[in-house]
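Revision sheet: structure tokens.
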Amino acid sequence: MTVPRLPNPFARRLFLHRHALSGLSGSAGLNGLASLIEQLGFVQLDSIATVERAHHMVLFARRPSYKTAHLDKLLSRDRALFEHWTHDAAVIPMAFYPHWQLRFARDADALRGRWQRWQRHGFLERTEAVLEHIRKSGPVCSADLRGEAPRKAGGWWDWHPDKTALEYLWRSGDLAVSERVGFQKYYDLAERVVPDTVRNQHPALDESIDWLCAQALARLGFATPGELAAFWATVTPVEARGWCHDQAKAGALIEVEVEGADGTHRRAFARPDVMQSATDAPEPIGRLRVLSPFDPALRDRNRAERLFGFRYRIEVFTPEAKRIYGYYVFPLLEGARLVGRIDMKAHRKEGVLRVTALWPEAGLAWGKGRQARLEAELDRIARFAGCGRVEYLPGWLRDTL
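Predicted:
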């Protein structure tokens, strides 16, 4: 049987459409924002605010009317979202909560052994005391729970027992994030945060595996079992392979050859109507957009390189002398192409968004039209970041590396 081939231009269009990057989200109000997050599946949270925090950048790239306060309203006031983990901390539609029961159980098992080995703080003995404190006193942040051990300044390896217990109770589902103040999480009992209608649902294992794999595929358009497993980072690769096999046997999935930017092909699974879906996917608008380094379209760096020919690595943890581009460099999307990357920072006290460097992709001319589109986008970004103007440092337009 001949395996269908999905040409690269169509694969890009389908992928960008599923990631809400074909056009702009014009739906007004909080309901429109909630629908956008549901389309994406989740939005990763990150504290770095070189221009604005990553989760806000992800939403602004798709929704120019987005206001940062709206996300907090959906999370803290309306309880339309909850905060937990996929591959990292993220905000997730509350309707998905029942399938996180599987994640809670798996995190509890994994962290119980891992943190006991790594930290040896006896945090498990503190869990009931932490729960009792929250029952009586209400929501807490980690600074409210000092325990008896002295606090240290450092990473997770320096967590005091109550902080470790707090995180464990959140990851295992007994607690939920009730709000963030600044970027500080406040935790409360899950029953005070999560509506009973979703909290009391406990899907069977096979039901959650089916939901997680099917919903990952719906957002990717085409995927390998490993990519399906990585999307929510909850099902295992073995479970994802089994799901693909069963779905293909039932005729609900087919294999396709997806063409990469370099002309090579790689097999993936897709729904039987994938060719029609790719044909029907709209051509992305030509507007130039700044993407977050944690944008869901770029989260899988290897897939982005295969599909777009764009090699991207974040260099936050790379020593400065070894960085190729910079500490926190933003990819630039224009239509269906990633056309470059830009190093910039919002200096809010000065009211200026300062551009240090921009590197066009190899073989791409940075002409007047593209520069005009960049300037229009940076003006929008500057206003979003609370800056009144954009400043370009001398030598900002760099040669392709």
